[in-house]
Amino acid sequence: MILKGTKFQLKVWKYLKSIPKGQVKTYKEVAISIKSPKSARAVANACAKNPYAPKIPCHRVIKSDGTLGGYSGRGGIKQKLKLLRSEKVVI
């Protein structure tokens, strides 16, 4: 699959593919992992612009306070919760 996005979005999306099924990361953890520790908000924006959900699993990224945040895929936040529950993530 050839992905189309900004350089930063592609970096975030590539990292998202490495998050194992059944696990979640926070936007801040993703930012730190891609070596942009102050870019948690930009990571959230990249997730929000992800047109490849759920193949690129932005549903596995949540807010630091443990709440879900948003979901760019069809079905919105309800679908994000459904996907996480199907992966046995306790939210």
Give a brief rundown of this model.
The chain has 91 residues and is mainly alpha-helical.
Structure description:
This protein is mainly alpha-helical and 91 residues long. It has one domain (7-86): Arc Repressor Mutant, subunit A. 41% of the residues lie in helices and 4% in strands. It contains 4 helices and 2 strands, in the order H-E-H-H-E-H. 26% of the residues are buried. The model has no long low-confidence stretch (mean pLDDT 96).
Structural class: mainly alpha
Strand content: under 5%
CATH architecture: Orthogonal Bundle
Pick out the low-confidence regions: none
Number of domains: 1
The order of strands across the largest sheet is 1-2
Shape: globular
Please name the fourth-level CATH homologous superfamily: Winged helix-like DNA-binding domain superfamily/Winged helix DNA-binding domain
Q: Over all CA atoms, what is the radius of gyration?
A: 12 Å
Q: For this structure, what is the CATH class?
A: Mainly Alpha
- Calculate the mean pLDDT score and round it: 96
Number of helices: 4
Query: How would a crystallographer describe the biggest sheet?
Result: 2 strands, parallel
Q: Oligomeric status of the shown chains? A: single chain
Using the coordinates shown, work out and report the CATH topology.
Answer: Arc Repressor Mutant, subunit A
- Total E-strand runs: 2
What order do the helices and strands follow? HEHHEH
Approximate helicity band: 40-55%
Give the termini distance in whole angstroms.
31 Å
